[in-house]
Amino acid sequence: IKRYDSLNGGNLLFQFKLKKLLQCRSFKWYLENVYIGVKIFKKKYQIKHTFFKKCLDLLYDAKRNFTPSIQTCYKSSTSQKIEFENGIISSDVYCMKFDSTSHKLTLYGFQLESEEKILWTYDKPNQRIFHTSSGLFLKYNGTLTVGACENREPACAWIMNPVDH
User: Fold this and answer.
1) Chain-centre distance of CA 114, in angstroms?
2) Cα(58)–Cα(69) distance, rounded to whole angstroms?
3) CB 149 within 8 A of CB 127
4) Is 71 left (phi over 0), alpha (psi -120 to 50) or beta?
5) Per-residue pLDDT of the chain (165 residues; tens, 9 = 90+)
6) Which domains does the chain have, with CATH numbers?
7) Apex CA 38: angle with CA 36 and CA 43, to 5°?
């Protein structure tokens, strides 16, 4: 088996000058600006409840149906590596939605959905996640719900910790 990392690549000065002359962009720039929609470089977070020290989990299973849950935090859990971009809380497969009419919090596939059901806002200084159109907060006090929160109520406090892919 050949080891290519030990080979001498030669003088790359011409390639570097050509790259600068052509104003070439990085592959990451290409993925973010040309090939939009790829999930390779999107920021992911572990959303942790500050009081119970458990994490938001967007895993579908037969027992919970399509309901997000709170589970013990695991750094390797892909269902706890959550994207929060443009107000959408999502995993690789589902986004979290709240129906203010039925008061149901569910996981939803990425088919077109009314923005008012899927948009969330994270208030970092107050550690609150709220449903943007209803103004109600994500809460956990033994059950994951959405509702009103008193100032500094522990059931409503969340932190978003960046995680590696």
Assistant:
1) 19
2) 7
3) no
4) beta
5) 566 667 777 888 888 888 888 888 887 777 777 765 555 567 899 999 999 999 999 986 656 567 899 999 998 888 899 999 889 999 877 889 998 888 889 888 766 567 788 999 999 999 999 999 999 999 999 999 999 998 889 999 999 999 986
6) 44-162 (2.80.10.50)
7) 105
Predicted model pTM? 0.72
Beta bridge partners of 130: 121, 137
Q: Which two tokens stand for residue 158?
A: 């969340």
* DSSP conformational letter for 142: S
The encoded tokens of residue 91 equal 């995993």
Q: What is the amino acid identity at position 62?
A: A
